């Protein structure tokens, strides 16, 4: 009898042990699952951040090329209006064609390499030309605006671009020229109609991937025909990963003035 009782108790004990082991096992499995989910998310975040950093670096390289082009030529680059971007400024008779403000960034005309589609920038430049050179604000045209004679060192140089930038900065906000909307943060809502923040001398948009699933690498509100871009460094989201760099006229004028030797 005692032996039987002992046997029964040891069977119960073993069952209890098996039970505990199964509970432990399921806890381990849950923890393992959570850990691998967390490490996958972390991996995905790191990969996305790396892409983003690569695009930011490419964008600031474009920006410094725009600035040195401005210093050398007394104007901003003219957009490349070819459909897929051939890398060349669209010029007519050597000057920026018509009143074109929107296209691709003309990489080859600036001596840069044409990048792959995800890092190839859309580009907009502010152009509000007038007959009077003193009020002219066509930033893509090199024009004498400070009454220097032909042959003079300061004829059609960067100081003439600074005048055009100042003229552009004095105009009131106008959606027929390149402008920025908000950033869904401090600059307010991303809404090209209800929230127009500022006109810019230029903006560039690097598309990266198609996050909003509209078959275009650009994400809302960016399209090939929209003069509106989000404010710079708008945070990445589920539906948006475009990288924007832009400068209002006063900011670019300030940078150029600081860089001048006189
Ligand atoms: Ca001049
Ligand atoms: Ca995108
Ligand atoms: Ca898209």
Gyration radius, in Å: 29 Å
How many strand segments?
11
Task: Give the strand line-up of the largest sheet.
Answer: 3-4-9-11
Shape field: elongated
Q: Output the helix-strand order.
A: HEEEEEEHEEEEEH
What does the model show?
By secondary structure, the chain is of the alpha+beta class. It has one domain. The chain has 3 helices and 11 strands. The strands form 4 sheets. The chain has a 4-stranded antiparallel beta sheet with strand order 3-4-9-11. Strands 8-7-10 form a 3-stranded mixed beta sheet, with no helix packed on it. Strands 1-2 form a two-stranded antiparallel ribbon. A hairpin with an 8-residue loop joins strand 5 and strand 6. Helix 2 packs antiparallel against helix 3. The model has no long low-confidence stretch (mean pLDDT 90). The site of one calcium ion has 8 residues, from helix 2.
Which structural traits does this protein have?
four-stranded antiparallel β-sheet, three-stranded mixed β-sheet, 12% strand, elongated, binds calcium ion
Topology readout:
Blueprint: H1 2-73, E1 91-92, E2 95-96, E3 102-104, E4 122-125, E5 127-128, E6 137-138, H2 158-170, E7 179-180, E8 198-199, E9 202-206, E10 228-229, E11 243-247, H3 249-259
Parallel strand pairs: 7-10
Antiparallel strand pairs: 1-2, 3-4, 4-9, 5-6, 7-8, 9-11
Helix pairs in contact: 2-3
